[in-house]
Design brief:
A three-stranded antiparallel β-sheet has the order 1-2-3. The protein contains 13 helices and three strands. It has one domain (12-361): Glycosyltransferase (Alpha/alpha barrel), CATH 1.50.10. The protein starts with 11 loop residues before the first strand and ends in a 5-residue tail after the last helix. With 366 residues, it is mostly helical. 46% of the residues lie in helices and 2% in strands.
Length: 366
Amino acid sequence: MLRSFLVTAAVVIVAQPLFAQDKLDLKKIEEAQTKAINFLKTTQAEDGSWTSPTQPGVSGLVVYSLLTSGVPVDDPTVAKGLKHLESFIQKDGGIYDPNTSHKNYETSIIVTALTEANKDGRYAETIAKAVDFLKGIQWDGPEGAAEVDPAFGGQGYGRSKRPDLSNTAFFLEALTAAGVSKNDPAFKNALVFVSRCQNLKGSNDTVFGDKINDGGFYYTPAGGGASMAGPATPEGGLRSYGSMTYAGLKSMVYAGLTKDDPRVKAASEWIAKFYTLEENPGMGQQGLYYYLLTAARTFKALGTDEFVDAKGGKHPWRAEISNKLIGLQKPNGSWINPADRWMEGNPEIVTAYALSTLKACEGGKK
């Protein structure tokens, strides 16, 4: 298990698109995508859903992955999936199952899918209303969270749950996909919450801020705080781990922070020290595919094609991550995680994650 560390190594992030692009095997990526698309087409239910007719977040992940992998909007599988997602549009603008406690999660994911399907403007109004809905349930004054509250600016599964970094990252992914300005108060308030999820003295003003001070991120400072990487340290610190550190760094970039910001530097140094594709640092195999997707999106958001770790090792991440995934693909085109936590024992969810990751790895391919 990952313990607390003080990162002293530096990270160098450089843009060398030709170097990383030369390392990619785009033919193998395309072959893996085709196999995965065919798998997902065979597992769609008659009603257009995947996994469950009452879990539109899962279907949203799949539809998004198919669209970004080049499956057209009018493809029968995608068209049926979009129709299913449309059935969850609510009067308040959210897109969720009415009996769910995952309103932010479901709406955020579906917004990203509808944005990909919106080339002709068919979903413009729906997306705008959904974005307003998401802003409305962000934790602030109406949710009883003043700015001094550790919950301020975050997103949870819905109003009944405490906010957390994972849900906040999905929220910011949706706002970014929808073209919301980084100057929007929703981004600025979310950045307050995200900063409070980082183990960094000086920028995290919660009781956890200076306990570990390694630059990594944990799940939430709200509701007494929590890290999925294990119990609090004897000093009361919340342990950093891989998927949340990438999610936190990506969220900061989406919110407008640059690589010169101390928070970005500290997170990058943590990643440099614990860079690996063999596990989700601090969590072992748990959440591995979510981790790989979040890592790829983070490096892409940073605008880098080569990452240098704390020992000076150079990593053309697009090639490394895509090759890792291709090696894990099952003969039927799916992926699955034997460590079944956070639904990664579900091949439809994990295959959607993997497809989206491969797309992020394509680089300059059109």
